[in-house]
Amino acid sequence: MENGEGREVRWGFGENISLTSAGKNSIRATLYEVMSSLKEGDPRPVIPLGHGDPSTFPCFRTTLVAEDAIVDAVRSAKYNCYSPNVGVPSAKYAIAEYLSRDLPYKLSPDDIFLTGGCSQAIEVVISVLARPGANILLPRPGFPAYEARTAFHGLEAQHFDLIPEKGWEIDLEAVKALADENTAAMVIINPNNPCGNVFTYQHLAEVAETARELGIMVIADEVYDHLTFGNNPFIPMGVFGETVPVLTLGSISKRWLVPGWRLGWIATTDPKGIFKETKFLDSMKNFLNISTDPATFIQVKLNVACLEDIHDDIDFCSKLAKEESVILCPGSVLGLKNWLRITFAIDPSSLEDGLDRIKSFCQRHSKSSK
Ligand SMILES: Cc1ncc(COP(=O)(O)O)c(C=O)c1O
């Protein structure tokens, strides 16, 4: 570009290419990519089983008490002003009181830092921990925002595996092998995204013991605890006691209040039961393997060898979108190639419809059907 005096000038801004790959690693971007395969003109409704947001479905309608509380707060005109950027004091006080009910010690409002959603909490925590030379241990599969933020801040990320055969428990031996004197923290996601499991008290106690031995902080991302169904109890973080530093990110109550300023959901039906009622998983065992009793999502392993014309999880999801108008999340974006994440945060009849369509897709592409 020329400036007014005929001299060549260059724009002073440009892409930070060291972040390009981190930016691509996003569930939303991957789902948009899958959705681009949807065929126009399919008269059937699109069934979104790739997302984790049930708010559009009436069976997950937020409780009226919570809705009224928001309306009352807005109408009171007490809060229509700048607030302290660590959170409104009365909210911090209420959260500290509430969380203390599960703990062997008492939190004070100063222990609470409110953010606009868990993503901002991740940004804040990672930027605080990213001192030169430090590293952090992340779960695989995991939530891609951690990889993106660590890349952004130059904090080295090391990965430990979650073990499908053990209900997605953490491979604690791997954690011990990875940790060194520069390890600042390990992240646990519980209830887990993407695997959908909830850790047992016993396993959390082992995590606490390991963290104590290694001298590392535990960052507990609990964003989905409002979405656990069935037999999976919420496991109080009190198991960590006062001897391991624990930073809890995410939702602050069981089922109805979630981080930041957003409201949670209450399930008035149990969509999880549909997997059992429709015998979906039994009938699909040639193609898909499930290894755990899920809390929010079902993580299933794709048996590519049994399918004609399907190369991998991304190919499966793209063709499924095109032929059946069903959206699933490919495991690759979460660190698990050839796995699929299926959510049941959707109304039961759509879930049933979606599972039927997945079934006919697999049967149509089955090698044995040729
Ligand atoms: C494990 C995990 N952490 C963090 C987030 C981000 O939470 P928020 O949407 O509140 O920013 C999500 C959202 O899906 C999540 O699943």
Description:
By secondary structure, the protein is α/β, with parallel strands linked by helices. The protein folds into 2 domains: 21-61 and 270-369, Aspartate Aminotransferase, domain 1 (Alpha-Beta Complex), CATH 3.90.1150.10; 64-249, Type I PLP-dependent aspartate aminotransferase-like (Major domain) (Aspartate Aminotransferase, domain 2), CATH 3.40.640. It is built from 12 helices and 12 strands. It has helices at residues 20-24, 27-35, 64-75, 89-100, 118-129, 145-153, 172-178, 201-214, 272-277, 280-283, 313-324, 348-365; strands at 47-48, 135-140, 156-163, 169-170, 183-189, 217-221, 246-249, 288-290, 297-302, 326-327, 329-330, 339-343. Strands 4-3-2-5-6-7 form a 6-stranded mixed β-sheet, with helices on both faces. It is globular. The N and C termini lie far apart (60 Å). Bound molecules: pyridoxal-5'-phosphate.
Highlighted features:
single chain; 370 residues; alpha/beta; Aspartate Aminotransferase, domain 2; 2 domains; six-stranded mixed beta sheet; four-stranded antiparallel beta sheet; 32% helix
How would you briefly describe this protein structure?
This protein has 370 residues and is of the alpha/beta class. It folds into two domains: 21-61 and 270-369, Alpha-Beta Complex (Aspartate Aminotransferase, domain 1), CATH 3.90.1150.10; 64-249, Aspartate Aminotransferase, domain 2 (3-Layer(aba) Sandwich), CATH 3.40.640. It has twelve helices and twelve strands.
